[in-house]
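Supplementary Note 3. Input sequence used for the single-chain structure prediction.
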Amino acid sequence: MQGPLIRALRSPDRFPRGQHPKTRNHAEAVTCLGESKNMTKTKSSGVPELRRLKLKWTGVRPLIMHSARGVDPENTQVRQKQQLQRKRTKSEDDLLALKRLDWELGLYWDPELKLYIPSENIERCIVQGAATIKKTKAVEGAIEVTESNVQITSARGEPYPDDLDALYESGRFQFRHVIRIPPRTGSRVMSIRPMIPTGWQLLFEIEFHTIAQAILEEAILAATLIGLCDWRPKFGRFVSEIV
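The predicted structure, written as discrete structure tokens, is reproduced below.
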């Protein structure tokens, strides 16, 4: 089995030569998936055994969101945005409303959970980590986040405020950048995306097959350097630990 549960990667020999060179200088604390008192086993009807593990990801870089709600033609806010975009001459209020709509449509937001991340995003992040060590197939069919959506909390484990007006107007939850519409050939316009400041946390449970346990640790380690959501790896990076 692996060594201590939480280990600082300070040795360049952590990975064999030629494998995942990005991690050689990475000194962040990460968690190993060895035997843990917090690891639970579940019986599977098939041959390999299933285990559950509770993980905490803490952001060391801001998290940029980009929900797919903005491409839903039946969404009320999408229709409002389309109506404003059809105007040939837009007032200052129209332009401000468009920016606000862009921001809200990019949010992962639920009335009960508040800010959240879909479990698919977390699973995809781990699978992308596995791809860097050429273990994509071994991991993508062997892991599952048990919740559909995972709430984002502050570093103290507290939910963020549920007042969207306050979040938007504070400016701390906005990421402004210039894009071209259409891409590459169009004119440059300012875009606003939702951004969660450094220190965000995700606490979730993952179910995995024991057959993938040996490589899951390296896949999660690689995922911490790839990052979560948009503008990776500049944004969305985190450290991972067992809780």
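Residues 6-66+107-155+197-242 form one domain. The helical segments are 76-86, 92-106, 119-132, 136-140, 164-170, 213-226.
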